[in-house]
Amino acid sequence: MILPIVRKEARELLRSDMVAGSVAIAGVLLVLAAIEGTGTLRAQAVERRAASEVHRERWLERDAVNAHVAAHAGTTLYRPPSPLSAVDPGLDRYLGISVFLEAHRINPFQEVRAAEGVPAQRLGVLSVAFVLQVVVPLLVVLLTFGAFAREREVGVLRLALSQGASPGRLALGKLLALSAVLLLAVAPGATTVLLLLPQAIVGPGGAVGSRSDLLVRAGAMALVYVGYLLVFLLLGLAVSARSRSSARALTLLLGLWFFQCLAIPRLVVQTVQEVRPTPSGYGLRAAIDRDQRASTDYFDLLEQGAERLTTTYGVSTAEELPVNLRGYALMEGEREATEVMRHHYGRLHAGFEAQQALYRLAGVVSPTVPVQLLSMALAGSDLSTFLEFDRQAEEYRTLLVGVMNDHDMYELPSGTSGFAVPQDELYARVPEFAYAAPRWPDALRDERGSLMLLLGWVGGTLLVAGWSVRSLGRSP
After folding, report:
1. Could you tell me where the beta strands, DSSP code E, fall in 41-111?
2. What is the Cα–Cα distance from 445 to 451, expressed in whole angstroms?
3. CB neighbours (10 Å) of residue 61?
4. How does pLDDT run across 227-269, given as a tens digit for each residue?
5. Domains of the chain: which residue ranges?
6. For the segment 380-420, what is each residue's pLDDT rounded down to a tens digit?
7. Which distant-in-sequence residues (6+ apart) come within 8 Å of 142 by Cβ?
8. Which of 129, 214, 417, 470 gives a 20 to 30 Å CA spacing to 341?
9. How far is CA 381 from CA 291, 366, 373, 376, in A?
10. Half-sphere exposure of 270 (CA within 13 A, CB side)
């Protein structure tokens, strides 16, 4: 019977002062991280929503000399925080939260808390994800190193096997007992998140579009961490089963924990930055300015426009045109400037994605890497979600500038400037920005490679643990 083994193992684990203390510490850390994460999320949601409303009001009430000046005065968009960033803040602090939109220029995001954004650089941030990815695996090491090794040292293992106990049943009972003890450590943090997570930021315009999407993301994230911790449980049992002493098992497991959870992610970050560097903000701006200087200037656009439009509309002079030549030149100048900027920013974003792809490869030697990427993707705090917001923000900038330029070209009399319609009516033609959040299938599709790596780790450690446990029957 498995149940007596589970009860015996759980009772012995909880009687240990070291185990009880470690479980309590992990539980307290998870609760503190959950309180900090949900508190930060609430503050971010309120601040960004209020700032978005203020900037919308400023746009509608703006007074400008003409429509194109209004397009240069622009507006600011704020990226909504994801509800699950309370669990995993991911890259939020590294990628900025607001972007200023204006004519002829794509601006970088502002309010960036750190200069770089590769996943492992957030290892020092206390969050629920950090505790689950780094601290709880250390707890697993403390729970599992003596599972078989200590019983071998005192002779209990030999006695149990000689009396006909099945190595597989012993291992399964220990695994279930260890899982129950881990649940005691994780449950307080999970409960805290559920109680404090603000639901008001879910819906249209939010980082998660619906409650059902949020539930699926949360459930998938829970399964990811179950698989991750199962990897360490199986590794711990396998090492303990093959070790002749508990000291040797502890040393080996601590080494595996250090390299897989801390050293490998950090080393890969440095390697990725050297192998696939991305331009600095100054270098990017200089390259854009250089290419824009090579574009057609305003007066040449006026001249070209006069020739093209008089032919198109069949008139002799620019004064006879039914459209505004100045508006045409502004529209064409915006089109050329946008092409240059999108080209350079596209290369920058491709570089970020290439860095992440290289980082993902480290998941072959560390299960922490795919779990980091999956956790951030499901939380909506990853690079892909940021780039999707950036894409929608750029589309909105194009819309805003297009409305202003269309007014200048098609509604102003030829050769004039100013407003053909009341300013407030013109500004209201630009709709309020409505962010369409990616859905959970998008997150899993973007990180399907990480998902396969995690499943490979679960399957691989299961095979290794099975082989190690079977060896107990041959050489106890």
Report:
1. 75-78, 98-102, 105-106
2. 9
3. 10
4. 999 999 999 999 999 998 999 999 999 999 999 999 999 999 8
5. 2-474
6. 999 999 999 999 999 999 999 999 999 988 888 776 777 77
7. 18, 19, 22
8. 417
9. 33, 21, 10, 5
10. 5
